[in-house]
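User: quick one, sequence for these tokens?
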């Protein structure tokens, strides 16, 4: 099967790394597995060897869907669809473990779609995702670092995360120009709830659109009485966006939601 550039397809082929990814998921016989973008089924094959209760794969490419059906038959359930259009249809009796060597061009959209999922910790137990290394560094970054930003905050809000390993380009076909990284995410049981989860995306977008500037301008953009809000939040307006903690961004978003109700 020839990878399609338009779908961001880069097939992971190194057996050792495929097994590391599977081991990171700690698959049990009772587990339901969802794999996003299985491609030619290299990772799927290793997942099946662990004998989970059920394996569901979401593959947008109709030709690959047929290839997977020919290869695995009734060992898997194939959903020939775009994960961004069907991610909210997997409400099953047991929490799902989700695997994915994510297409570079939509990896952050896939991640944020799950983050905004209302009952995340009820229906999903773990996410094991491969990202472009540059994106992975933004996801796991801590405050006061150059990579800290919107993705760092959104993921920290709802999930614990750990970068497991970096993967050289040579392990993919076709060979990409960049390195990749494996991250495991675990949904948190207790989080700050918002009326609309996308409000946190909106707030962080405004702050990090000008990440080198002091936060007075984004605060002014969000709040007419921004100086009073900053005082209530005990927030120094001379700080820059990367200097503010995740918990403080959640407080800012709460103020914003109360304002627009």
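Assistant:
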């Amino acid at each position: 099967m020839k990878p399609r550039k338009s779908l961001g397809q880069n097939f992971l082929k190194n057996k050792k790394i495929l097994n590391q990814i599977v081991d990171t998921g700690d698959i049990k016989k009772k587990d339901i597995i969802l794999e996003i973008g299985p491609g030619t089924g290299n990772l799927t094959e290793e997942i099946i060897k662990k004998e989970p209760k059920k394996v569901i794969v979401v593959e947008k490419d109709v030709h690959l869907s047929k290839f997977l059906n020919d290869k695995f038959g009734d060992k898997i359930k194939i959903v020939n669809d775009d994960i961004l259009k069907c991610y909210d249809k997997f409400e099953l009796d047991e929490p799902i473990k989700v695997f994915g060597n994510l297409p570079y061009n939509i990896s952050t959209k896939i991640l944020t779609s799950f983050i905004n999922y209302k009952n995340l910790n009820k229906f999903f137990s773990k996410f094991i995702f491969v990202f472009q290394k540059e994106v992975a560094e933004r996801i796991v970054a801590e405050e006061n670092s150059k990579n800290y930003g919107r993705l760092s905050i959104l993921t920290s809000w709802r999930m614990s995360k750990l970068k497991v390993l970096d993967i050289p380009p040579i392990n993919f076909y076709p060979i990409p120009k960049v390195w990749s990284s494996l991250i495991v995410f675990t949904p948190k049981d207790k989080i700050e709830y918002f009326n609309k989860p996308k409000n946190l995306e909106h707030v962080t977008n405004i702050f990090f659109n000008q990440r080198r500037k002091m936060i007075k301008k984004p605060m002014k953009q969000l709040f007419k009485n921004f100086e009073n809000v900053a005082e209530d939040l005990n927030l120094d307006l001379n700080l820059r966006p990367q200097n503010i903690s995740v918990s403080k961004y959640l407080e800012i978003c709460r103020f914003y939601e109360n304002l627009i109700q």
